[in-house]
Write a structure and sequence with these properties.
mainly alpha; 2 domains
Length: 95
């Protein structure tokens, strides 16, 4: 926004534009979002495995991404309320 402010664009116009951009972004996210049936565990697991496999595409283990994505999803699904998702970490092991 700095260039617009420096050009003398009024702050109300900038705020209005930002609100409009936010609404457009929210609409696009809602349009692209995938609706899940919370009762269909098989569908949830399949989607989670797809997401995990996508995240592994560029890693050294990409050739076994299906195997590792299944392991990751199984591990996460074992968590309960006492073990919140934010406790999941990734540890890089290198040479």
């Amino acid at each position: 926004m700095k260039p617009f402010i420096e050009e003398g664009v009024h702050s109300r116009i900038i705020i209005k534009a930002l609100r409009r951009a936010l609404q457009i972004a929210k609409d696009k996210i809602n349009e692209l979002s995938v609706k899940l049936d919370r009762r269909d565990m098989d569908e949830q697991i399949e989607l989670l495995e797809t997401c995990a496999a996508t995240a592994m595409n560029s890693k050294l283990i990409y050739q076994q991404k299906n195997h590792f994505s299944e392991l990751v999803v199984k591990a996460v699904m074992k968590l309960d309320e006492l073990l919140p998702l934010n406790m999941i970490g990734i540890k890089k092991v290198g040479t």
